[in-house]
Specification:
The chain is built from three helices and no strands. By secondary structure, it is an all-alpha fold. It has one domain. The radius of gyration is 12 Å and the shape is globular. The chain starts with 8 loop residues before the first helix and ends in a 13-residue tail after the last helix. InterPro entries: AbiEi_3.
């Protein structure tokens, strides 16, 4: 199993962003992103690459 099959900060951030602006404010999402300077660009790229577009990302998905 790949690491993406488990939780990761990169996946958690994308899950939070799916809730903007309905359940999470832009300001809160921005504050979270400011504190996540240790995200792996390769993991973020892989997660985004698995999406056909940003609307395709759903929690529990790729």
């Amino acid at each position: 199993m790949t690491e993406e099959a488990y939780g990761s900060p990169e996946k958690a951030l994308l899950e939070v962003l799916t809730e903007v602006p309905s359940a999470v404010s832009f300001e809160h999402a921005d504050a979270l992103m400011q504190g996540l300077s240790n995200l792996s660009p390769k993991k973020v790229d892989a997660l985004l690459g698995a999406c056909r577009n940003t609307a395709d990302f759903t929690p529990g998905g790729p």
